[in-house]
Amino acid sequence: MHAAHREGSGEAGFRRIAVVGFGLIGASFSAAVREAHPDTEVLAVDVDARTRAEALERGWASEAAHPDDAAFREFVEAGCDLAVLAAPADALEGHFERLASWGYRGIVTDTVSTKKRVCELAARILPHPENFVPGHPMAGSERSGIDGARPDLFKGAHWILCPDAGTPAEHFPRMHELITSLGARVVVLPREEHDEAVAVVSHVPHFVASSLVQLASRHADDQQALMRLAAGGFKDTTRIAAGSPELWCGIAFDNKDALSAGLEEMRGIIASFSDALASGDRARLTALLAEAAEARRALPAAWVPSTERLLEVRIPMEDRPGVVAEVTTHASSAGCNIQSIEIDHVTEDSAVLSLVLTDEGDVGQLSSRLIDAGFSVSFSPLTPKEHAHVA
User: Fold this and answer.
1) So, what pathway does this thing act in (predicted)?
2) 8 Å CB contact between 341 and 196
3) Does 135 share its domain with 215?
């Protein structure tokens, strides 16, 4: 058996990374990369001169350029192996066109919170759309721009990746290794399911938080003490409402259908509470509150997997398009967290996919899903010391 296939060089798995858009997410990503992998070269691409200067001064980038500067093209053509598009969604088309015109053949990922439009743009513009691996870090701050950025922003956060049948098998392990090295947890979602999922857990909550702040603000003039009382739980619940209005307006219209459906469903849920009150139905109101309380208590307090209970899953497979995306999607669906992933090539057409899982999720469900999908699977406990030799 050959050694595990790894491309790129350096501890990060990528030697040269161009980060396009040095706002909160792009700058935090670069800061985390430079902290974890100081030998990695990072180009900060941004339209704002102060931001570029800050990126260099803080050591979060080794070079900086305006999108129209020749230095951007030179960095790409000199061997850039990862382009991270962290610019606003409406700017991505121009950046795809730049990369395409320069014949870029490395991996491209993005950080925007909707996927339908960006995937359509990549498929239409990029000469090698199979190298586009859509991404979405589920992290943020009430502060925007480089001033709100910090290297630990992604620690413990979920980072969605959306490989598909066309994604080369080696791309996912490389992206997974880089993202988890920053402290984030990778979750795999099919591209067509992403926008509806984040509408429920991210976009609708933002608009609900904004609505709560509007409600309090409307009554602040009548009750001078109200805003002083709006601390603690209220302040925590509505923190996200302080985000950039322009950014969230763009997100809303990019995900208009899923967001509208979610807000309409939310309207019905609120109405059920209102109806129970209006009809004096204490049993119904108690049941609604109990249902929500039970669901909330079931959420994990934090992602703290045990390092003493690792499990290796080995899956012999044909080296065919989409197999890695299929397996990792099954793992995410079963709630299993992949700590590391490797591909051991046996022959030109066959390989063994090796996953190291933490103690989360339903391994039995994962096994059933994989067997039903036609895979042969073997599980074995793995100690941290053994894992050091695998990873």
Assistant:
1) Amino-acid biosynthesis; L-tyrosine biosynthesis; (4-hydroxyphenyl)pyruvate from prephenate (NAD(+) route): step 1/1
2) no
3) no
Sheet containing 107-110: which strands, arranged edge to edge? 63-65, 41-45, 16-20, 82-85, 107-110
Question: Using CA atoms, how far apart are residues 344 and 353, in angstroms rounded to an integer?
Answer: 6
Mean pLDDT of 252-256: 89
Residue 351 contacts residue 317 (beta carbons within 8 Å): yes
Helix (H) or strand (E) holding 83: strand 82-85
Expressed as residue numbers, the domain containing 335 is 310-390
d(CA 286, CA 214): 27
Whole-angstrom distance, CA of residue 386 vs CA of residue 366:
23
Q: Closest Cα partner for 129 from 179, 159, 163?
A: 163
Contact by Cβ (8 Å): 60, 92? no
* Integer Cα distance of 309 and 51 in angstroms: 43
Q: Which string of DSSP letters, residue by residue, matches 121-183?
A: HHHHH-S-GGGB--EEEE---SS-SGGG--TTTTTT-EEEE---TTS-TTHHHHHHHHHHHTT
Distance CA 240, CA 301 (A): 19
Q: Is 320 a residue whose pLDDT tops 80?
A: no
257 and 358 belong to one structural domain: no
How many separate domains does the chain show?
Answer: 3
Tens digits of residue pLDDT in 83-119: 999 998 889 999 999 999 999 999 999 999 899 999 9
Residue type, 254: D
**Stretch 183-190: mean pLDDT, rounded?**
90
Tens digits of residue pLDDT in 38-47: 999 999 999 9
Contacting residues for 273 by C-beta, under 8 A, at least 6 apart: 285, 288
Structure-token match 């209102």, residue found: 274
Q: Are both 259 and 245 inside the same structural domain?
A: yes
**Strand 338-345 relative to strand 63-65: parallel, antiparallel, unpaired?**
unpaired
Bigger pLDDT: 221 vs 179:
179
Domain boundary among the residues 263, 297, 331 is at 297
Q: Are residues 282 and 319 in the same domain?
A: no
Neighbours of 305 (CB within 10 A): 15
